[in-house]
Amino acid sequence: MILFREMGSAILDLRISKGPPFFLNVLIRLENRICLTAFKHDFLFSGRVVIPIRNNKQVLTPFMKKIIRSCISQVEIAAAVEKLAARISRDYTQHELIVIGVLTGSIVFVADLMRQISIPHQIGMIQASSYRGKATSPGELQINLDFLPEIQNRDVLLVDDIFDTGRTLSVLVEQLKLRQPKSIRSAVLLWKTARRQVSATPDYHCFEIPDEFVVGYGLDFEHQYRHLPYLGVLEQASSGENPSPA
Description:
This protein is of the alpha/beta class. The protein is built from three helices and 16 strands. The strands form four sheets. A six-stranded mixed β-sheet has the order 11-10-9-12-13-14, sandwiched between helices. A four-stranded antiparallel β-sheet has the order 1-4-3-2, with no helix packed on it. A four-stranded antiparallel β-sheet has the order 7-8-16-15. Helix 1 (74-91) packs across helix 2.
């Protein structure tokens, strides 16, 4: 329940009080409006920052007016990344590993993964995008190899945030093969198995998810929500496709 009323004030006034069982009443006065809303007790928000307190189920971001339903918690992500890093460390023992992250969606995933991988390795980045502005459907793929290190005769692990249709990852793998690496594998945080349009599959993944629009932990919508420490479904998005390379 959300109620707005004109107040003629630009002051942020956040007051939290206990309501009925399992609810918090949150009053916000901001930019000529009062927002009074009731939330389940396991989360709240303050200003532009969403603050999960416990297993957050649903979040209203008042600035963007989107509902985010948590689907994978921060604790679950950390455990999955640690498990994946241990597997990669075993598989690449005594190999010259280079981890290549796909900008921009994978930056949080890559940062956490590289700190968990226990064997020596190098880091590089590749920029790829098929989305522009507010687009939620992919267009022509744009690739920038300027940040790519020398990979000839090296074992490459290409890391992306999400495997959606699989077209982006397939094109990137073919592009990297032209530089003659010793081997190349792929790892993704999320895999939308129902949307695959290519024969290839990721060699490693953390989670399989349904065809829903996911944000947080590096994934965005209109350049927002990357900072969220968990993964959530954007309830009011117009499409099931994620606006990041897939």
